[in-house]
């Protein structure tokens, strides 16, 4: 979603980030799921996208999220989460005859294939990502011994290996990924590190758009589910710029701000952004 406009209320000026919310690939994936649901019942083995607004849409369409294999018997199609599932499960479901539709992000697919190639080369496989994020767990699930690096504490605990092979969760802050990969190189200078940046390009454009607004504003509201990875990445950007950051659960933190920018995480629907902006201008 690309948009920039301004609103005011009682001396408070509001500006929307030029790039916010869903990118083209994410919107297309959601639209494809809507078409599948119109053709017959759909089950998803996990959460399709980590956003309450998306989950509400799926319920309207009759899609079963977080489905078990028992639920598969009740539907026509099994659609994969946008953040992926383990390749082992995916292959098994196909062998058992379920109709599987691959609605994974292309960047998740790329990360999963790359991690497998790095494992074949004998590297210690790594995923730069959040320990509790379903996408990161799906990336690591297929390759026993894969280590998740969320912060420098994880890097400090890492044992030496002659070769490391790393990919990253697609919805992290680009600056955080660059910093952690740099710390990894500095810790083990004698090891060979193969790192493929598998971030979604949308994260970089959201971050750049927000940074340009941070020169103007004194506070930022980031739309999206509190704690969701891309929302947290944007909040990190705001704090790094020295401005007041708030998610939807903490909007009171913006009290006293006279210039407020609005940004949105990777899975936020346009109508949700518009609703929040409206609350700020009322």
UniProtKB/TrEMBL annotation:
It comes from the Bacteria. The keyword Iron applies. Its cofactor is [4Fe-4S] cluster. GO terms for biological process: dimethylallyl diphosphate biosynthetic process; isopentenyl diphosphate biosynthetic process, methylerythritol 4-phosphate pathway. It holds the Pfam family LYTB. Keywords: 4Fe-4S, Iron, Iron-sulfur, Metal-binding. GO terms for molecular function: 4 iron, 4 sulfur cluster binding; 4-hydroxy-3-methylbut-2-enyl diphosphate reductase activity; metal ion binding. This is Uncharacterized protein.
